[in-house]
Amino acid sequence: MSTNNIWTHKGTFLLAAVGSAVGLGNLWRFPYLAGENGGGAFLLIYIVTLCIVGVPILIAEILLGRSSRRSPIMGMRFLSRTHNASRAWESIGWLSAAAALIILSFYSVIAGWALHYTWRMLTGALANADAELASSSFQSLLASPSLLTLYHTLFIAASGLIVGLGVHRGIENGLRLMMPALLAILVVILAYSVMHGNMPAAVDFLLTLQLSDLSFEGWLAAMGQSFFTLSLGMGALMAYGAYMPGEISLSRTALAIVVIDTVVALIAGLAIFALVFGASLDPAEGPGLMFITLPLAFVEMPGGSLVGAVFFILVLGAAISSAISMIEPVAAFLVERFDLTRAQSVTAMVIASWTLGLLTVFSFNVWSSDSPFHDLLGINAFQLMELLTHILMPLGGLMVALFAGWALTHGEIMKELRTSEGWLHTWRFLVRFISPAAVAFVFLRAIPQIDG
Ligand code: PHE
Ligand code: NA
């Protein structure tokens, strides 16, 4: 049974894909990764990775969704059958569903922190805070399982509600409302950071290239980030691609997604570092950059509490539009395969992911230093989820590239891509050889580092 959902408007796929792509990866992860890995050097490797791995696999994944017109698991089952390929390719669908479940579980917990900070900023709880207070306030949030669970529950329920309302009534309408507002907020934040922060220092920090900063760790981080930020290898874009009208140019849309995602990450990075430098704070705080350093920078500036609250609303909105793209592929599968209603399917996915998310919640407090995972693997549950993410997404992406590159016929690719012969051959060469080789190489080199 194939889906009979098609996006209502020509631009909706792009809107939905950008909604999926732009999220915590751009606003939270990219800036701190760049901060930790040498700014300009990281940016350079990141852009190279996007070109040889990100764009080709992005095209491949949307293509598989659109040509199968089914949710990822059923879609891969259908495609492997119609191409006389091994049933093993269906595992692309299963891997991506597992990745969606796992990513949503911790993504929701972290997005919940933004809920907390929106509230803290609005009530002025952090006004006059100093570095010590900002840091201890973050620590006490992490130390509270009940508070973390509350925010986690609110966030995942809101995301589930939108998907539960349906592809058109929930996802399309939600995005059409949310995305322009998020763009407007981003512009406001950028303007504010130019006015009150130290933008030249931020530009210097993010864009100055020092070749000695190039490192293998940087490349590893860039590769992981390009999968995460583009929502690759977990079925989100396959599921959305299944609803994409046939006449829209796939390659042009994919390029637009990558450009927008990268520009948003850059703007967020520049704005955040301008504020951090403007307040003379440390840019290399790591994951705490957004939740410790940035709030501090805001409250030191005129009107900062309000602008800070608006910033955290941006983070929340961007995270919700990503979270719904993690729920949709699995929910669509449950509807197709088991004839459940949409409400039942979404509820099942959300409850499973919520429960798994409790492991992340506890890894910041009751299980922070000793847990069943620690004893077994030497890392806590949150680190385990992150590790699984960085295995599942590249693995899924690798298989997507190989299937699209080797199993699909030239005619099918022509029909979907409808681009010039030259581009078509370039893309096919990339997904057949270059992207898989790059992913495999980074993978193999990374394995000794995991226990190290
Ligand atoms: N791309 C999203 C971000 O940058 C994260 C995400 C990953 C969304 C996987 C969907 C699927 O935040
Ligand atoms: Na992103």
Automatic annotation (TrEMBL):
GO molecular function ontology, one term from the record: symporter activity
Residue ranges crossing the lipid bilayer per the database entry: 12-30, 42-64, 92-115, 148-167, 179-199, 219-243, 255-281, 306-334, 346-367, 387-408, 429-447
Pfam families (alphabetical): SNF (PF00209)
CDD domains referenced in this protein's UniProt entry, alphabetically: SLC6sbd_Tyt1-Like
Domain of life: Bacteria
Signal peptide limits: none
Entries under InterPro entries matching the protein: Na/ntran_symport, SNS_sf, YocR/YhdH-like
SUPFAM superfamilies, per database record: SNF-like
A Gene Ontology term for the protein's cellular component: membrane
Residues in coiled coil: none
Xref: PANTHER family: TRANSPORTER (PTHR42948)
NCBIfam families, per database record: Na_transp
Family note: Belongs to the sodium:neurotransmitter symporter (SNF) (TC 2.A.22) family.
Protein name: Transporter
Species this chain originates from: Halomonas halmophila
UniProt lineage: Bacteria, Pseudomonadati, Pseudomonadota, Gammaproteobacteria, Oceanospirillales
